[in-house]
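Researcher: First entry.
Model:
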Amino acid sequence: MDKNQIVGFVLILLIVIGWSVITTPSAEEIERQKYLQDSIKQAELALEQTQLNTESASSLINDNQDIADSVLIQQRGQDYGIFASNSVGEEQFYTLENELIKLKFSNKGGIIKEAVLKEHKKIVKAEDGTEVKVDLKLLEDEKNRFEYILPIGGKQVSTMDLFFESTESAGNSISFVANAGSGSIIQKYTLDSDSYSVDYDIQFSGLQNSIDRNIDKIQFRWLNYLDKLELNETFEKFYTTTYYKEVGEDSDYCSCRGDDEEEEEDKSLKWVSGVNQFFNTSLISKDVPFDGGNFEVKMMDEDSDDIKLLSTTLGIPFQHNSTEKFGMDLFIGPNDFQRLKSYNNGLEEIIPYGRSIFGTINRYLIRPFFNWLNKFISSKGVVIIVLIFIIKMLLYPLMYKMLHSQAKMGALKPDIAKMTEKFKDDPQKKQMETMKLYREYGVSPLGGCMPMALQMPIWYALFRFFPADITFRQEPFLWASDLSSYDVFFNLPFTVPALGSHISLFTILWAISTVLYTFYNTKHMDMSANPAMKYVQYFMPLMFVVFFNNYASGLTCYMFFSTLFNIIQTVVTKKFVFDEEKIRKELQKEKEKPKKKGGFQAKLEEAMKQQQKAAEQRSNTTGKNTKNKGKRK
């Protein structure tokens, strides 16, 4: 190697030696590393010992728990009989769901603990006053009971106190089994794929030696605390109750306005339904009906989160030597007419459309026609206006006759004014002569009543339709956020009895338009015979503001636009259709016609004559009595 290579190797050697000297740990560092390694080993040993102790403790706890459970089971043997072992356990939850509903089950009692309706929401008010939509749930109240009462050994054993073993079956179904030696209780739920319906079976097997021999039916008890689901609590209370149906009879229900109880002992019952304003939970028997029942509704306090408590007791037929299951359907969902009607057992009657002709109009005329219009028009409010337009056009011929009669009476107003002046001191005589005048010219003062009378059934049917049909629930229109509830134009800082703490703009507009329509429509009418009517006709709309202020805005919207259409029809007809000169000629021709005796007006005229004679007799009698008193003095 040459000189340069030797120098290079020497430098490398020096660097290596220097690095070794620098990086060599001191005695303190060597001692510290040893201390750390010893600490790690001690920690590992301690951890291993802790794990061993934990496993031993856990095993001991389990052993003690098993012993405690065994002791508890022995103690409960007197109360639960063969189901003592099922009275001890841990609650577990399971889920079935489809696109419409999500069901939460509990193995304690084998019951549905909660049902979430995915396509519907509940509106609640936040602390800042804003409205927030949350999940709408049924059957979720912890106080609910859904139980079978088993008479075993002189004791009443409730299935709600038993822990069932769960078994998931094929498809969207789940079974809960409580085994007790040779006997068992099996509950099976199967959720339909695209429905709110649950196929539900209960089977009591091998219990013939445990159930009292004189028992021929098992008592089923259902306590259902119904939550407040709507903002308009007043109407939700009115439409919340228990409905039930006896086989071969029309459905019946408990009172909606207060506490009530109905006993249907020894009757075959097809179904029972706990109904909110727009939702229901119904239990429907399949092949074999329920054997009698008792139904009770209890109003809850105003400050309660619940609106009502529905208590139901049903008899489940039981044969000691049979293992047949008792089949039922559970419907947990909205009060949708078509879905409920598909059961073909009258379940759709729980929707409070009305029980008389008005209910028939709602079910089979207004509802299908409204839904047909809704296929082409998405806004429910616009559909209401279109519905009004169609009804008004269909009734326009009658409206025309009413306006024509009013126009004739207006043309006779000068003659009536002269008659009023002539008989100003004798109102009954004036009224009788007025009736003669109407008869002479062929004018009927009742000619305007027919259109109103024909509209009354439709109007009253709609009065029941809007707060009952779920299609309007939470549907907005203009300033109204929910056509099934009242519209809030602004809130009052205080509460007015009967009126509430808000002002409904639809109601105010209806009252104003009604007053204007009444003024325009009756300004040519003579009311001197009964002056009080002149003020009553204006007072009535103002009085009804108190009632309709809390009513469904769908109805007050209908009322306002209906009155608006009336005003338009009246003004257009009187201004552009009627000819005053032509009407006078018609009256003259009618006057020249020979008049037939009899008829309603003639009878009315005769009645007024008799009334006048009676008044004159009373007046004469009063005069004579006054004279006689004067003579005695």
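Researcher: Second entry.
Model:
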Amino acid sequence: MPIRRLPPETVNRIAAGEVVERPASAVKELVENALDAGATRLDIQADGGGLTRILVADDGQGLSAEDLPLAIERHATSKLSPDDAGDYDLLHISTLGFRGEALPSIGSVARLSIASRPRMTSGGQAEAHAIFVEGGAVSAVSPAAFPDPHGARVEVRDLFYATPARLKFMKSARAEAMAIAEEIKRQAMAHEAVSFALDLDGRRTIRLPAEAKGPDGRLARLAAIMGREFSDNALALDHEREGVRLSGFAGLPTYNRGNAAHQYLFVNGRPVRDRLLQGALRAAYADFLARDRHPLAALYVELDTAYVDVNVHPAKAEVRFRDPGLVRGLIIGGLRHALAAAGHRASTTVSAAALGGFRPEGFRGADYQPPPSAAGYSAWRQGGWQPSALAAAVQSIPGLTEVSARAEPSWQPGVAEEGVPGYAHGPAFDPVDFPLGAARAQVHETYIVAQTRDGVVIVDQHAAHERLVYERMKHEMAEGGVTRQALLLPEVVELDPAEADRVCAKAEELAALGLMLEPFGPGAVLVRETPALLGETDVQGLVRDIADDLAENGQALALKERLEDVCSTMACHGSVRAGRRLSAPEMNALLRQMEATPHSGQCNHGRPTYVELKLADIERLFGRR
């Protein structure tokens, strides 16, 4: 077949298919252009899921009448400058956009209009001009009305009208509108000093005022998007290693979700969806969450532009690092350091959920209204819920009327108890001043009730001790190494030659984890010893999992996770069981160990080990406040 040169209109439509996949992609490109132009205010409107109309208005530098025709030409950009030799450096990209494909691509498949007034450096106000593109056909530049002193207004109508086949693959208007809102949220998280406003079909959807630059402003912006609960349960991050800086906020393990939708990653101010960064986040929390639970986080990676390639994807949604191992290690190390510094802290949502469980929602009538205060108690009774009905409901709950709590002797300040640190010597000290307070009772031989200075703490004795034993086992394993067991017959594992080379290159690291192996010809490894903790294990499956981990993440996570799973199981079986009666010294010793042990706020499966109820919250339950 003969080779043909495609006409510019066809080329632009092909480019549009790569750059503008859906309305949210068009919004992303237009917003990034505005941010690169120095905008501090962005107003976005979208109708019909963005397929009918998109408007992005900003107060950036604006475009002159001479620049408008160039802006809609392919590969024309103001974001790359030639050096003295006339070459363009693609290794140091410091802007969000640089390809010069967005506007011509949008104009080739939609009706595009751009109105702009440039900022005058010498004062005064320049004239505004506009240009129109319809299905690739460009109009002449003409004077235009423009309300703002400077900036640009880009309007896109009837997106994909010139490519009807593409419309068949669009989702519903609601789904496309949600994608636009999600894109605006990501951009707003990356640029807290810029105000964002989004209207969908004439309804106010997002209103985010500009925040101060820095961690405080960033956290305020994240709280406005992810909810105040996130800011209450977020751990601050700020670490740097070999020129790579990690900052942002990550949620406590007990503050988690059932999917990874609330994990936001940014590289040099660019929202990205990167498997390496997502894998590092998962690995950092693997020790604290069940596999079907996911943490909330907003992580910001900053590094020299020469060490990250943002030109690997037409939509710039992915990046490639020169040293991925360094970035991954920084994320895992930074997150684990923050989690360790949190100590036994649990999320505020744990106590909120507990308070919700105390309210009589489980046996309220259809016309029941909770009493807002003591003053409203009469009105509450008149609503149909009588004390006699409450008594009947209580009587119907099995075990509630029985004596189920065994009160222990009161803990006396200054009295030394063997095995309880902090009491044997020194001046009299009231144990209620400890973070987890003083044990007062054991309920159902499972839960420890402790009194603090300003509230009550309820501890799950099994879950708490399980975490303590697990942390001690991990420490011992790290200090003394992993005990190995020799195989009676060394096992040969057949792999792809490249996989075998990767595994053998990590032989020293694997040996520290108890797995001894060596090359055995091309495309095979010989396993001589395995970790004793694993007992009888599937050597073939283990090595292949390690090879997959090395290919994807550069680390042998499979072996580490299996060892941690074994330690977790052993800790579960070796910890204090539910149903065992504890003495007062034993309960207080458990509380003091929890305070001194990192991560003791959640068990090995991510569930909370204790619930703290503040006295003020308890008083509100009884209408005292």
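Model: Note on the second entry: Confidence is low (pLDDT under 50) at residues 361-427.
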